[in-house]
Amino acid sequence: MSTHQVVLIRGDGIGPEIAEVTQKVVDATGVRVEWDVVDAGESAMERTGEPMPAEVIDKIRARKVALKAPITTPVGTGFRSVNVALRQELDLYSCVRPCKTYAGIKTPFKDLDLVVVRENTEDLYAGIEFERGTGEISELIDWIRKRRPDAKLEAESGISIKPISVSGTDRIVRFAFEYARKHHRRKVTAVHKANIMKFSDGLFLDVAHDVAKEYKDIEFSHRIVDNMCMQLVQYPWQYDVLVLPNLYGDIISDLAAGMIGGLGLAPGANVGTDVAVFEATHGSAPDIAGMDRANPVGLILSAVLMLRHLGEREAATWLEGAVANVLHDGTHVTADLKEDPHDPTAVGTVEMGDAIIEKVHAHRAHDA
Ligand code: NAI
Predict the structure, then answer these.
(1) Residue nearest atom 1 of ligand 1, based on CA coordinates
(2) Could you count the other beta carbons within 10 Å of the beta carbon of residue 310?
(3) Is the pTM of the predicted complex or chain greater than 0.70?
(4) What tens digit of pLDDT does each residue of 101-124 get?
(5) Which residues line ligand 1 (CB under 6 A)?
(6) Which of 178, 273, 284, 362 has the highest CB neighbour number within 10 Å of its CB?
């Protein structure tokens, strides 16, 4: 049996708590992982003055696989999002977020099984922003006014630029179709607002149509993003794989996470050509950090995706089965999964992890 080398980023807020539990449950599967545990975010900032030290990036590049707990991004001030920087630096262009309901979870959306594929490097996340009141934005506003005299553009504006390219769209839509083929999915739906943003979202839609022609075995459809939100709430079962530009992908994946029972349950993978970084959809939840209240399942299910990526299919099946068992039993789950968040029978992060480990052992023993 080979040993896999994985970088484990402990993150901020609830990050270290859920990272430790996830490491233990993965080890319980018997898969040999040599964990290279590193810090990024606030803790790294305090220690090294850098939220994402170059050494961490180098390690991920070398090992090619990382499991990452969430990292805090201060709003408005402080450092730029480490999460966005990491995706751009390593060109992790696709973000895959499977959204599946497990028995025992409180949600009106039973038997949901959707996959959100979000473009991860372009769009309004490209980091091209101009601050109001600066010299450069005055120049930009003058430039725009000369070319678009009818544009509604006040002098006191801030401007964020939304680039969407043919190559960036081609590779994400192709990724979505390849994913659909590999995972025996029937349909890909592209989501956009091409009726309003004709040159960015319109391009996304045109390229998606072109790529779809090469995948005749998979149905293709498209939806305007606002309609998509309504459709997801009313008729989610019609959808299978969704492919979206960055911002819509961010929003729709949180919506889908809510539909499957909350952020605490939603896993994700950021995948590039060579490197993959696995992380839950949720953030660092500073409101419950250090309280042993965080639900570890989002990161544990991200580790399931990682095990599949590493070719450890059996271990992934055991671990996903163990999570499903614990959710179904409902006796060893964190407060966010209870009807009443103050339910005194809710357990902590560590105890939920231990219950999952016990089930992993049961699956292993059964298949031995
Ligand atoms: P959040 O996802 O951290 O929290 C939203 C709500 O969900 C909070 O009430 C929180 O307690 C709850 N929650 C989240 N994860 C949970 C879990 N595992 N178990 C139980 N409850 C959970 O989103 P928020 O508050 O918008 O962001 C907090 C920080 O996290 C920000 O600095 C943000 O930038 C960062 N963030 C980082 C991400 C990443 O590292 N990939 C992704 C999203 C946000």
Answers:
(1) 283
(2) 18
(3) yes
(4) 999 998 989 889 999 999 999 999
(5) 14, 70-73, 83, 263-264, 279, 282-288, 294-295, 298, 336
(6) 284
